[in-house]
Specification:
Chain lengths: 122, 107
């Protein structure tokens, strides 16, 4: 069974930093692209960042570029999101998701999601 | 930046057909996917690559995508289908984009 377990969230003051982790199990983590998606309470889903298999290709939402860094450690089956200079509007639940790509390497959906970790910036 | 627009809410009677739409510039040239998020739960992928259903998703869920509009159709809607539905597309410049969500009520 595919499992994604996020951790690292919590209460942080504005300007602070946090590193989120997502431990994967039940599949070959190193063979899959992964993403982070966040959701402000009561609001919609917002894509944050994605990383391809080898970690060489990383994508970010334009509004977050420069403050957030996605990375992965395939030896630990773990996805990370380093968040710096946090602001109040970064307060959200952060989900990690396993991505599905087509034969050309283009994203087509995320069939597996973790339960999320709450980040509160206040 | 690329944007996807959804109607905020849709209501359907049990057993009837619900259609949820998602619009975006030349959306038909991209792959659309759909997610259901029930209250307090993580999103669940119900349609990907416009029309494909992941394993475990009932056949009553179907999708289409053409022109500027992608649609999710739920035939024979059930109470368990209630929740927020989000469309998503991948764009080469803005990458993964979500629509604002549509709240489906079955009553």
């Amino acid at each position: 069974e595919v499992q994604l377990v996020e951790s690292g969230g919590g209460l942080i003051q504005p300007g602070g930093s946090l590193r989120l982790s997502c431990v994967a199990s039940g599949f070959g983590f190193s063979n899959y692209a992964m993403s982070w998606v966040r959701q402000v309470q009561g609001k919609g889903l917002e894509w944050v960042s994605s990383i391809r298999v080898g970690g060489g290709f990383r994508y970010y939402a334009e509004s977050l570029r420069g403050r957030f860094t996605i990375s992965r450690d395939n030896s630990k089956n773990t996805l990370y999101l380093q968040m710096n200079d946090l602001r109040a509007d970064d307060t959200a639940i952060y989900y990690c998701a396993r991505d599905l790509l087509d034969a050309y390497g283009d994203y087509v959906g995320s069939p597996h999601w973790g339960q999320g970790t709450l980040v509160t910036v206040s | 930046s690329y944007e996807l627009t959804q109607t905020p809410s849709v209501s359907v009677s049990p057993g009837q057909t619900a259609t949820i739409t998602c619009s975006g510039d030349r959306l038909g040239t991209k792959y659309a996917s759909w997610y259901l998020q029930r209250p307090g739960q993580s999103p669940v992928l119900v349609i990907y690559e416009d029309t494909r259903r992941p394993s475990g998703i009932p056949e009553r869920f179907s999708g289409s995508n053409s022109g500027n509009t992608a649609s999710l159709t739920i035939r024979g809607a059930q109470a368990m289908d209630e929740g927020d539905y989000y469309c998503q597309a991948w764009d080469s410049k803005t990458y993964e984009v979500f629509g604002g969500g549509t709240k489906l009520t079955v009553l």
